[in-house]
């Protein structure tokens, strides 16, 4: 994860900064705002901003969505909402894992809030749910760079291990704030 953070994430930030240099007003905006309004980004840099900005934003969330001695099950409103939507936490975990394993190539598996409804969905590459007006509650990076050094081609092992570090406090806080 250190290489993932210090090399991959850092490159997204560097290339995002290079892209927005030609549209200086973007440099004054939060990345979430930029991704929500990609149509306002000049055509010449929109793809770079979507890719590099999405990589930066997604990873910025990803690091906070994990913690040492994490895992377990969500409590409170998020835990209740997951049970209501998916039947049980075990069913949610199975469906989320299946989505993560089903991402073809590189991308993400997300638990998002779409309006007031929780959904599990993938996104390709570094596309972010915020660009579709959704709120990411929990996300799992399933690019090979996220797991290959430790798990080689065993994405399933990585997904299984990730549940042990999920920061449910962070996800629950995002859920509560999104509903407010």
CATH top level class name of the largest domain: Alpha Beta
Portion of residues within helices:
55-70%
Please state the second-level CATH architecture of the largest domain. Answer: 3-Layer(bab) Sandwich
CATH topology type of the largest domain: minor pseudopilin epsh fold
Number of helices: 8
Describe the structure.
- It is a single chain.
- The chain is an alpha+beta fold and 180 residues long.
- It has a three-stranded antiparallel beta sheet, sandwiched between helices.
- The chain is built from eight helices and three strands.
- The longest helix is centred in the first third of the chain and has 22 residues, at 43-64.
Outline the fold blueprint.
Elements: H1 2-20, H2 31-36, H3 43-64, H4 76-86, H5 89-102, E1 107-114, E2 117-124, E3 135-141, H6 144-151, H7 155-162, H8 168-179
Antiparallel strand pairs: 1-2, 1-3
